Amino acid sequence: MSADELDAQQPSGPSATPQRSPRAQTPTGSGTWSYRNCADARAAGAAPIHRGQPGYGPHMDGDGDGIACEPYRGR
User: Fold this and answer.
1) What pLDDT, on the 0 to 100 scale, is given for residue 25?
2) Domains in the chain: how many in total?
3) Which long-range contacts (CB under 8 A, 24 or more apart) does 65-73 make?
4) Does residue 13 lie in a domain region?
5) What gap in Å lies between CA 36 and CA 70, rounded to an integer?
6) Cα-based distances in Å from 4 to 9, 14, 21, 37, 66
7) 64: containing domain
8) 75 domain-assigned
9) CB count, 10 Å around CB of 56?
10) Is residue 33 part of a domain?
11) b/e for 21-40, b at 16 or more Cβ within 10 A?
12) Residue 45, pLDDT score
């Protein structure tokens, strides 16, 4: 089957393209952004996030070590 035949079988129109929701993000005031919370960062596959990486926000770094949304370690 040719590429043209495969293309002809694909649905067309606005519903043919899956709609992606934008990343959950919050402006930080310095032209950068961060995820709203760790759940959003984890859902995007971005956790853990280190200070300086896109999506990092100090509000997600509970212990202030520069690593946001790190895995929970039980004691």
Assistant:
1) 59
2) 1
3) 68/38, 68/41, 69/35, 69/38, 69/41, 69/42
4) no
5) 15
6) 9, 20, 30, 44, 51
7) 22-70
8) no
9) 24
10) yes
11) eeebbeeeeeeebbbebbeb
12) 95
| Residue the block writes with tokens 């999506």 | 55
| pLDDT tens by residue, 14-68 | 544 444 344 555 555 556 899 999 999 999 999 999 999 999 999 999 999 999 9
For residue 14, cis peptide bond before it (omega within 30 degrees of 0): no
* Statement: residue 13 has pLDDT above 60: no
- pLDDT recorded at residue 20: 38
Residue 7 structure tokens? 């293309």
54, two tokens: 């896109």
Does a structural domain hold residue 14?
no
Question: Per-residue confidence at 72, pLDDT binned at 50, 70, 90?
Answer: confident
